[in-house]
Amino acid sequence: MSNAGSSTYSAYRRLLAYIKPYRGYVAIGVVAGIFCGGASFGLLTAVPQMIKPLEQKSGIVSSDSSMVQKQSKKPAKMEAWATQLAVKWNLISEDKSKVTKHGLLVILLIAPPLILLRSFAMYLNKYCIRWVGARVVRDLRDELFSRLQVQSLKFFGRSDVGQLISKCTNDATSVEQVLSLTVADLTRAPFEIGAALAFVVMFAIQSDMLVMLGLCLLIFPLCVVPIVLLGKKLKKYTHSALGRISELVSRMHENFTGIRVVKAFHMEQKEYERFQVMNASYFRSVIKALRAELLMSPAMEAVAGLLALAFVVLCHFKGVTIGEIIAVGMAAIMAYRPVKGLVQINANIQRGAAALDRIFAVIDTDTAIREAQNPVRISTFKDKIVFNDVNFAYSGSGPAVVSGISFDILRGAVVALVGETGSGKTTLANLLARFYDPLSGRITIDGLDLREVEIASLRKLIGVVTQETIIFNDTIASNIAYGTENVTREQIIEAAKKANAHEFIVAHKQGYERIAGEKGFVLSGGERQRIAIARAILRNPPILILDEATSALDTVTERLVQEAIAHVMEDRTVFAIAHRLSTVKHADLILVIDHGRIIERGSHDQLMAVGGVYKKLCDMQFGIT
Fold it and tell me: Which of 21, 87, 144, 458 has the fewest CB atoms found within 10 Å of its own CB?
């Protein structure tokens, strides 16, 4: 088996695990499909017997004495059993020239229910299989999103958000189309084809046309050749097209989220031209896949047409009756739709396989922070946090971001980190929250290595206000309550007041029910920052990480918020990162970080007295020369 075929097989074999819980629905759909195929076979076998009286009455057979002679030479045992039963039960006359009144009544009583039953079976087949398809894709999308949620920050740092969104939407939709629209036909079409094939075999045996049957069986596999060859091309081009649409989604995501910058630099036309180029590339990939898909059906039809022509010529020389030709023709017509459907089924399967490959690649990715086999659950912070010779780099071969960091954070203390951008301050905060693990050294809380602590319990002890304020497209109340369970409106309002956010919230007519917009678009930078601070205040954690938490506030608001935070942080441990040194003057310990190393430590007064880097930073900020 080729690599493409093996990959397709592996993808759908994995998909079976998602289908297994709904095998009851699948079984009902398959049984209904089998019934449709059986009903088709019964209809086909009845056609010759229904047409034969018409042939005899119209003189079609008698008009050709040689044909009658050939027919009369057929052994009586070859006469259809259905005809014998019909005469015995008085459904047709003894001379087989017409249907009796009794036979007509039986047909009218039996045929309509059977037709309705077959139609219901077809509906049941499609409904059950499409239900399973929709449910499986829902489960697949749930798992995909769940797997993305547990990936590490390192994974998201090197991944394109737009492409991840595309895999959760476009790729999952491709799989849904395969399961919902293809599997129903796949469970029914083989039985319909099998019924038609069985009838043709029976007809060939009765009509002494085994040579023709053998030739058909030898030639028929040629119909599969274009499906196999073009199917490989289709999967390749579909995989490329999915990659292109992912790039389009990524481009649109970047553009829409950064629209202020786009407009500020008057780049609308340039962005449009860039999008045009990417969209044209996607179009070319789609057209290549479309060519491969559309070539399948004409190739199948050409082979089928040639076979049908050869069949008619052979029937002429074999002296086959019009009734038998019509019967076989009906079998061919009934088989044609599902056979042609198999072409589309194969095309959909190849498209689905390409999408599944991309989805399973994400599901198989595992960059999650490893939890200990028997993690320790902690509920309080009692003593101190210790950084002991901590070293870290974002990639194993990359430059060190943190080197030999060692310091203690006592419970209730305020520790401030200062230094130039890129010096490693935020990385230390991320290590404390265990968004990453040190490459060497250890970080302990109350003597426990963070790697031994249950991640969920550790995160409950830590509140974070980041430099990049994250506000969700939800109500302001929901944004403040995010991450805190079972809170009342009074608690939300109290947290907002302490963060100096209550006044601007209630100034709007919708108040706390106002929708913040995408990334808090309707709020100013300072308002978003205060909402984030209120969120941390409401959570009321024993450890608080403030990463440039007041960077977006004006001087007056900054002072009010600092007073509120100072009040709330009593008897709490604070890990503060700031470029504005006025916010960290009263810290118990100030660490000056440079290129991932601590170059100075002490209180504000101590560091000013030393006259080192910290004093120079203060003099520069406060304009002292």
Answer: 21
Q: Is residue 110 part of a domain?
A: yes
| Closest C-alpha to 545, from 458, 611, 622, 420 | 458
Query: Measured in Å, how far apart are the chain's first and last C-alpha atoms?
Result: 77
Q: Max CA-CA distance within the chain?
A: 127
Q: Which of 9, 414, 342, 83 is nearest to 187 (CA)?
A: 342
Same domain membership, residue 585 and residue 520:
no
Q: Which of 482, 8, 524 is nearest to 228 (CA)?
A: 8
Indicate whether 477 and 582 sit together in one domain: no
Category of 255 on φ-ψ map: left (φ > 0), alpha (ψ -120 to 50) or beta: alpha
Q: Do 503 and 591 belong together in one domain?
A: no
Amino acid at 158: R
The two beta strands, 573-577 and 402-410, are unpaired
Q: Are residues 98 and 130 in the same domain?
A: yes
Residue for token pair 């990334």: 519
For position 262, which CATH number holds?
1.20.1560.10
Helix-then-strand count for the chain, H and E: 23, 10
Whether residues 437 and 489 share a domain: the answer is no
- Residues 497, 608 share a domain: no
**Structural tokens at position 438:** 């040190």
Q: Which of 540, 573, 590 is a domain's end point?
A: 540
- How is residue 238 written in tokens? 């579909």
CB within 8 Å of 1: residues ≥ 6 apart: 9
Distance CA 251, CA 521 (A): 20
**Rounded distance between C-alpha atoms, residue 186 and residue 349, angstroms:** 10
Taking the C-alpha atoms of residue 381 and residue 297, their distance in angstroms, rounded to an integer, is 69
Share of the chain above pLDDT 90, in %: 14
Q: Tell me: do 375 and 352 sit in the same domain.
A: no
Angle between helices 23-58 and 101-150 (to 10 degrees): 150
The residues that bridge with 99 in the sheet, in sequence order, are 92
Distance CA 532, CA 543 (A): 16
Which residue is it, tokens 């790729």?
171
Structure-token pair, residue 374: 């028997």
Residue 548 structural domain: 369-461+543-552+564-625
Burial class (CB in 10 A: 0-12, 13-18, 19+), 266: exposed
Q: How many domains does the chain have?
A: 3
Torsion, Cα of 197, 198, 201, 207 (10° steps)? -110
Query: For the domain that residue 623 is a member of, what is the CATH number?
Result: 3.40.50.300
Q: Tell me which of 302, 331, 363 is where a domain ends.
A: 363
Provide the H-helix boundaries in 441-509.
455-460, 476-481, 489-498, 502-506
Q: Are residues 357 and 338 in the same domain?
A: yes
Spatial CA neighbour of 47 closest among 117, 118, 111: 111
Residue 621 lies in a domain: yes
pTM, entire model: 0.68
- Segment 243-283, tens digit of pLDDT: 787 777 777 777 776 776 777 667 788 888 888 888 888 88
Listed in sequence order, the DSSP H helices in 59-182 are 65-72, 81-88, 101-150, 153-158, 161-166, 172-177
pLDDT tens by residue, 175-205: 877 776 676 667 666 776 776 677 667 766 7
In angstroms, the CA 44 to CA 328 distance is 8
Residue 559 lies in a domain: no
Exposed e or buried b for every residue in 548-580, given b needs 16+ CB within 10 A? bbbbbbeeebbeebbebbeebbeebbbbbbbbe
CA proximity to 469, closest of 407, 533, 563: 533
Is residue 2 in a domain?
A: no
DSSP 369: P
